[in-house]
Design a protein that fits this description.
By secondary structure, the protein is mainly β. The chain is built from 1 helix and 20 strands. The chain folds into 2 domains: 24-210, Neuraminidase (6 Propeller), CATH 2.120.10.70; 228-301, Immunoglobulin-like, CATH 2.60.40.3080. The strands form 5 sheets. Strands 16, 17, 18, 19 and 20 form a 5-stranded antiparallel β-sheet that branches. A 4-stranded antiparallel β-sheet has the order 1-2-3-4, with no helix packed on it. Strands 5-6-7-8 form a 4-stranded antiparallel β-sheet, with no helix packed on it. A hairpin with a 4-residue loop joins strand 14 (194-200) and strand 15 (205-210). The termini are far apart. The model is unreliable at 214-224 (pLDDT under 50).
């Protein structure tokens, strides 16, 4: 019985210790309804926070070193009204990127921190009006940043990606953004397709949509032929059985954003051996013959 009570005491003690505790001191001055973004640096495992400080009328970014919070670069933008912010790390460089609505510019700004200072990523985007949210995320296959935001000028949600030089539209505008609008953008880890969730003022409901990267490449089943590709998922090597022999075969490897990364030619065969080059993620293998387009095969490289 003595051991039972001792065990019970240990269990109760463990349960009592499982509670929330403060991480550093309070930060900033929160006036009105304000958004905040918290993320961990994948290299140092330090938490970073981005928030609108009502006292400074600006966005602050701070990191916690295990003892205290410290400023990361200078204050950014002009935070007015109820605003959202999105902070993420570039998976290839471990640099923090931030997207926020700048009340002074009436636009969304995207900036990155190189260890010394913040710098602009591309041009300003959209027109911010009212209470807005924003979502910034990296494509795990291409390491390109994608942003989703409500554009007050278009009264709709826009999704754009940055190719290293400029921002470009991803698909069409979505929904009707009116009033207080938040938005969330993520990538499906198995297909690398972007998914978005947003409030549609026209439907008075939340909508969730995904961007079908296959559509932009073309009809995946122009002919209903039994083509077999294996192994899938693959580490690199891919075998394709066509079901019959063709005189001329062209095989294109296309990445998840529709860019052709390799083209190969084969003759008089019904079996093809190819390799999927590039980083892990979603690819499309487009097979065409002297009789025309046959099929596009979706392949995952792991």
């Amino acid at each position: 019985m003595k051991h039972f009570y001792l065990l019970l005491l240990l269990v109760i003690s463990h349960q009592l210790s499982a509670q929330w505790s403060q991480v550093g001191t309070d930060l900033g001055f929160a006036s009105g309804d304000a958004g905040v973004s918290l993320v961990f640096n994948p290299s140092t495992n330090e938490p970073y926070i981005a928030y609108p400080d009502g006292g400074a009328n600006a966005f602050k970014i701070q990191k916690f070193d295990g003892t205290s919070w410290s400023q990361v670069g200078t204050d950014l933008g002009f935070a007015i009204g109820n605003v959202g912010v999105s902070l993420v790390f570039n998976p290839s460089t471990n640099e923090p990127y931030i997207a926020y609505p700048d009340g002074g510019a009436n636009a969304f700004k995207i900036q990155k921190f190189d260890g010394a200072s913040w710098s602009q990523v591309g041009t300003d985007l959209g027109f911010t009006i009212g209470n807005v949210g924003v979502s910034l995320v990296f494509n795990p296959s291409t390491n390109e940043p994608y942003i989703a935001y409500p554009d007050g000028g278009a009264n709709a949600f826009k999704i754009q990606k940055f190719d290293g030089t400029s921002w470009s539209q991803v698909g069409t505008d979505l929904g009707f953004a009116s009033g207080n609008a938040g938005v969330s953008l993520v990538f499906n880890p198995s297909t690398n397709e972007p998914y978005i969730a947003y409030p549609d003022g026209g439907a008075n409901a939340f909508k969730i949509q995904k961007f079908n990267l296959i559509v932009s490449i073309g009809n995946l089943n122009n002919f209903n032929l039994n083509i077999l590709a294996f192994p899938n998922p693959t580490n690199s090597l891919l075998n394709i059985k066509l079901g019959k022999s063709y005189n001329t075969i062209t095989v294109k490897t296309i990445n998840s954003i529709g860019i052709v990364i390799s083209t190969q030619y084969f003759k008089d065969t019904d079996v093809i051996e190819t390799t999927v080059k590039g980083s892990n993620g979603l690819y499309f293998i487009e097979v065409s013959t002297d009789f025309g387009f046959i099929k596009t095969i979706k392949v995952i490289k792991k």
